[in-house]
Amino acid sequence: MSYTAPLAEICFVLDELCGYADIVLLPGLGDADRDLVASVLEEAGKFASTVLAPLNRVGDKQGATWSAGGVTTPPGWVAAYKSFTQSGWNSPSASAETGGMGLPYVVNAAIQEIFQSANMAFALCPMLTQGAIEAIDKYAAPELRAIYLDKLVSGEWTGAMDLTEPQAGSDLAAVRTTAMPDGDAFRLKGQKIFITYGEHDMADNIVHLVLARLPDAPAGVKGISLFLVPKLLVETDGSLGARNDVSCVSIEHKLGIHGSPTCTMVYGDGPGALGFLIGEANRGLEYMFTMMNAARLSVGLQGVGIAERAYQQALAFARERKQGRATGASGSSAIIEHADVARMLGLMRGKTEAARAICYQAAAALDLATRSEDAEERARQQRRVDLLIPIAKGWSTEIAVEVASLGIQVHGGMGFIEETGAAQHLRDARITTIYEGTTGIQALDLVGRKIARDKGQAVRELVEDMRNSASAGGRPVMGMTTQAAYLIEEAARWLLDEGAKNIALPSAAAVNTLHLFGICIGAWRAAEASHAAIDTAFAETKAAMAAFYADQIFPEARARLDGIVGSSAVLNLRPDLFN
């Protein structure tokens, strides 16, 4: 159950696939040079392996507990969180002016992967706080930023994202929580469910960002506003005052991430929870998407982290476990010498590396979209961010479930036994395809907002970059990139052409499209990695993995295109046919 951050691989992706040398030249990032980043990542790896990883099993076995409205986190978590925040890990990409490290988003992505891999249930808390920091920094009034921002950046207070209600899961138009004016503030009443870290004992205060409706709000998503609701009210001198009218009435009993409390929150048992409007009224969903998009990329990184952890454990087991005699061997063999085990490990590593490259590429594009001095380049990179986010979230989490399941298979019967720890990775991974928008929702976002809305412009730019990379590669495996670009282009063309004839077809094709994009972009990055690696041993591994990807993983993309073209079969499955 030990964990070692894959620092060589992470740094290779930053340097060779994300162009970190160019990112560090962006305005405001001059201090984040390559030596500093290497040092920061090394320290993150040490903290993850020595502090967080040992608590992962504790959190799974003992979990968070609820009593009389209070939530107690697993043993050791409060001390770990204090050490986490004192070491400055709470907000790596927040500006230095607010107390953060001021690091690029792509470096923060690497740090997040490391912490999520070590202990996903723990790392969920600072992940959500980072989203709250960004939303408050961008949209809250100066007086709210002055009170709350520094405390969130330091980690003294944590953030929570309160969207879901019993009748309103992904359909936020059905939100019923109300907000009544009360002087300069508002009184909120309603219930929210599935609120991660909505209550806990690791920080002094919890800042809830809550979606609610004003009395005169229009119906649907256009009538949703965003409110800041603190657990404890803040006095004029900045000290903490009385408990707000918000309470945790229960926590869920879950398949995985047992150490992370998933809370049912009630606002307004009494006069109503005191809340403060963020930004303008009825624009709450727009503002919440700031948190949501950051969270979606972070969940994609959770997928990468869990996949990496499952791969490391399966690899260690495969090297130690002796079983049978491999072909050509004279005696008992370690199971890694058996061809089928090598195949499974290859799938685990190949898909994990592809998902990492996609998530980091999205984060690097976000740096460029935010900081480039060229307006056209900012717009182009924002289109790339928007295109990659649903793929990073949806595909990376789907492969996390697959990789964790393969990890159990590598262990054989021992993987099905909880004591080995292999099963925890699968149980923890399973939620990642569901929260912050299911895979189906990510896929609909991809085909609807990100392909159809701009008539394929972002896809054309992606395909152009892939073809330029292929033409410059000079190695046979770069032909895989050319094929991948063609498949992406064909999928987008079909969606635009057929969607214009039948608006229902893109929805039926959406998940196949998401998988095709993930596999194809992963193929591009695997081929690029094999070309970029210079170190002899590293280059040999990258060449072998690219060849494996081409023959064992990439063929699925062609099958996914067949599924897209055959999507009318989905529409033919009328509800009455299911029995």
Give a topology summary.
Elements (H helix, E strand, L loop, with lengths): L6 H11 L2 H4 L10 H29 L2 E3 L2 E3 L4 H10 L18 H14 L1 H20 L2 H13 L2 E6 L15 E5 L2 E12 L8 E8 L12 E6 L1 E3 L5 E4 L2 E6 L10 E6 L5 E5 L6 H37 L18 H33 L3 H37 L10 H9 L8 H14 L4 H17 L5 H23 L3 H28 L3 H18 L1 H11 L2 H4 L8
Parallel strand pairs: 3-6
Antiparallel strand pairs: 1-2, 4-5, 5-11, 5-12, 6-7, 7-12, 8-9, 10-11
Helix pairs in contact: 1-9, 3-5, 5-6, 5-8, 5-9, 6-7, 6-8, 8-9, 8-10, 8-11, 9-10, 9-15, 9-16, 10-11, 10-12, 10-13, 10-15, 12-15, 13-14, 13-15, 14-15, 14-17, 15-16, 15-17
Helical fraction? 55-70%
Number of E strands: 12
Q: Rg to the nearest angstrom?
A: 24 Å
How far is it from the N-terminal to the C-terminal residue, by CA? 44 Å
Number of helices in the DSSP assignment = 18
For the residues shown, what is the average pLDDT? 94
Overall morphology: globular
Low-pLDDT parts are none
Secondary-structure-derived class:
alpha+beta
Q: How many strands, what sense, and barrel or not for the largest sheet?
A: 8 strands, mixed
Please write the string of helix (H) and strand (E) elements: HHHEEHHHHEEEEEEEEEEHHHHHHHHHHH
Percent strand: 5-15%
